[in-house]
């Protein structure tokens, strides 16, 4: 009896082993002949993924690159470790990212927006109807164009920013060395100086602020304009601290006068909104008396004899600043 049961059990085990082998052979056949990606996931409807460990989620999405991911509608991740999300977005290059509507990214490139296309290698395109050229390496573009007027960056190692135009407003060009800096253009993508502004004006509202330039001898000069439209350059006492006070009546301990000693011209800094400027000699005689302008004031002292003078600045609120000055 036991011998018969043992024979029957052995037959059942042999039958199970045959079905197991047939199942393994069927799975192997499917993997080899239908290109189903290993460890891949497919969810929802009409998705395709054939890459190893890739995923496709949504409707009519594709993920054919190994370790890729696509989601949404008609989005495609072709490159290795690429990601495509949204509608009809394509991550074609390896290690690329494409997000939005009809966006595109090439090798190691990233695009975000509507019809944002990062075609150049290692490039960025962010916005609407913007793109980097295929031949431009490491180029960046931010902003918006239109379906008829696409804004494109075709210069490697550069940044373009613009809105509602096919021409960028702001441009940063490549540096000539790893320790250098590039040129900046406003209204141009081909600046010939460190900063170039094309077809436009520079507007400075406050008359006590202006353009600061450094002369070859190391001194800094500020160019300002007075109420008469006259443009004057005055010497600044310190090139390292160029901030100007905007307080109506700032707290300060002494009057700034330079150069001191001086000869034919001296500059006096007036921090008050309204003030009277006076020069007096050692006898107390007033030799100069005038209405002070805000900011640096150049004073002609050519006709003053050599000696010691006291310069006093009196604000309309009664505040006073005095400084001794030597005329050589």
Notes on the protein architecture:
It is a single chain. With 328 residues, the chain is mainly beta. It folds into 2 domains: 41-197, Serralysin-like metalloprotease, C-terminal (Alkaline Protease, subunit P, domain 1); 211-327, Immunoglobulin-like (Sandwich), CATH 2.60.40.3080. 10% of the residues lie in helices and 41% in strands. It has one helix at residues 2-33, and strands spanning 41-45, 48-49, 55-59, 62-63, 69-73, 76-77, 83-87, 90-91, 97-101, 104-105, 110-118, 124-132, 140-144, 151-153, 159-163, 170-172, 184-186, 195-197, 211-214, 220-225, 231-235, 256-258, 265-270, 275-281, 286-292, 295-300, 307-315, 320-327. The chain has an 18-stranded mixed β-sheet that branches. Strands 25-24-27-28 form a 4-stranded antiparallel β-sheet, with no helix packed on it. The protein has a 3-stranded antiparallel β-sheet with strand order 19-20-21, with no helix packed on it. A hairpin with a 4-residue loop joins strand 27 and strand 28 (320-327). The longest helix is centred in the N-terminal third of the chain and has 32 residues, at 2-33. The N and C termini lie far apart (135 Å). Residues 3-10, 34-38 and 244-253 have low confidence and may be disordered.
């Amino acid at each position: 009896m036991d011998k018969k049961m043992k024979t029957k059990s052995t037959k059942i085990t042999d039958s199970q082993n045959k079905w197991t082998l047939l199942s393994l052979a069927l799975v192997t056949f499917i993997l080899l002949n239908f290109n189903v990606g290993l460890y891949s996931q497919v969810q929802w409807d009409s998705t395709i993924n054939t890459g190893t460990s890739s995923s496709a989620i949504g409707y009519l999405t594709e993920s054919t690159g190994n370790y890729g991911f696509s989601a949404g509608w008609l989005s495609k991740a072709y490159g290795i470790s690429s990601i495509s999300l949204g509608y009809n977005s394509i991550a074609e290059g390896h290690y690329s990212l494409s997000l939005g509507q009809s966006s595109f990214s090439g090798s190691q490139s990233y695009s975000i927006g509507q019809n944002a296309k990062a075609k150049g290698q290692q490039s960025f395109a962010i916005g609407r109807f913007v793109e980097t050229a295929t031949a431009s390496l490491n180029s960046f573009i931010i902003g918006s164009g239109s379906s008829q007027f696409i804004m494109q960056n075709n210069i490697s190692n550069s940044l373009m920013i613009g809105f509602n135009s096919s021409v960028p407003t702001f441009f940063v060009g490549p540096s000539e060395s790893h320790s250098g800096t590039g040129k900046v253009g406003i209204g141009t993508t081909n600046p010939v100086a460190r900063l170039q502004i094309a077809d436009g004006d520079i507007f400075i509202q406050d008359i006590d602020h202006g353009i600061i330039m450094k002369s070859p001898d190391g001194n800094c000069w500020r160019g300002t304009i007075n109420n008469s439209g006259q443009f004057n350059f005055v010497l600044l006492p310190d090139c390292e601290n160029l901030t100007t006070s905007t307080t109506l009546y700032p707290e300060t301990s002494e009057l700034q006068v330079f150069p001191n000693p001086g000869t034919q011209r001296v500059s006096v800094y007036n921090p008050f909104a309204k003030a009277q400027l006076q020069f007096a000699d050692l006898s107390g005689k007033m030799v100069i008396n005038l209405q002070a302008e805000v900011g640096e004031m150049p004073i002609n002292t050519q006709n003053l004899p050599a000696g010691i003078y006291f310069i006093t600045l009196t604000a309309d609120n009664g505040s006073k600043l005095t400084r001794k000055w030597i005329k050589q």
